[in-house]
Amino acid sequence: MKIMVCGPIAGKGVDEIKLFQKVLIENGFQVVNQLKARMNYSYIDDFRNKKQLAKRIVVNDLKFIEKSDVIVAICNEPSFGTAIEIYYAKKLGKKVIVLNEEAQPSPWPIAFADQIVKSKDELIKTLLKLRF
User: Fold this and answer.
1) What are the sequence ranges of the domains in the chain?
2) Which site in 6, 30, 44, 95 is 20 to 30 Å from 66, CA atoms measured?
3) What are the CB-based long-range contacts (under 8 Å, 24+) for 25-33?
4) What is the pLDDT along the chain (132 residues), one digit of tens a residue?
5) The domain 2-130: what is its CATH number?
6) What is the pLDDT, as a whole number, of residue 132?
7) What pTM value is reported for the model?
8) Which residues of 88-119 are buried (b: 16+ CB within 10 A; e: fewer)?
9) How far apart (Å, rounded) are the C-alpha atoms in residues 57 and 80?
C-alpha cells in the first residue's frame, strides 16, 4: 500500500509532512515522497511571478497522488493545495484519511474523508486495518 502525506507546505508544514512520512516508514508503510522530487517550495513566499514553477509543482503532486493508494491529509490548518489534493484523490477513487489533531471548523475535508483520525496512533491503527 502506497501512502502519500499531504498538508500545508508553507511555514512549518513541510516539517510536519516529513515527520508523518518518517512515522509511517518506521511503522513499515511505503511512503510516496513528493518532496524528494525537488518540490519542496516552502521557502517561496509569493508565486505570482512564478507561474511555470507553480504548474510544475501542481503536475508533480497530481502524479504522486495517481501513484498512491491512500492519501493522508494533514488538515490542522487551511491549505488550498491540500484541499485540491483531497478532491483529486477522491475523484481517482483513492482512500483519503484526514488527520486533524485540533478542531476542524470546515466541513469540506470531513465530507471528503473516508476516515478521520485525531492522532498519530489513531492514524497507524487505521492504516493497519486498511493494509492490502
Assistant:
1) 2-130
2) 44
3) 27/124, 27/127, 29/1, 29/3, 29/127, 30/1, 30/2, 30/3, 31/2, 31/3, 31/4, 31/5, 32/2, 32/3, 32/4, 32/64, 32/67, 32/68
4) 999 999 998 777 888 999 999 999 999 999 999 887 666 677 788 999 999 999 998 999 999 999 999 999 999 999 999 999 999 999 999 999 999 999 999 999 999 999 999 999 999 999 999 975
5) 3.40.50.450
6) 55
7) 0.91
8) bbbeeebbbbbbbeeebeeeebeebbebbbee
9) 13
Say how far apart CA 34 and CA 19 lie, in whole Å.
Answer: 14
Cell for 121? 496512533
Q: Which cell is 130 given? A: 486498511
C-alpha–C-alpha distance, residues 78 and 71, integer Å:
17
Q: For residue 127, what are the CA distances in angstroms to 47, 120, 123? A: 35, 11, 6
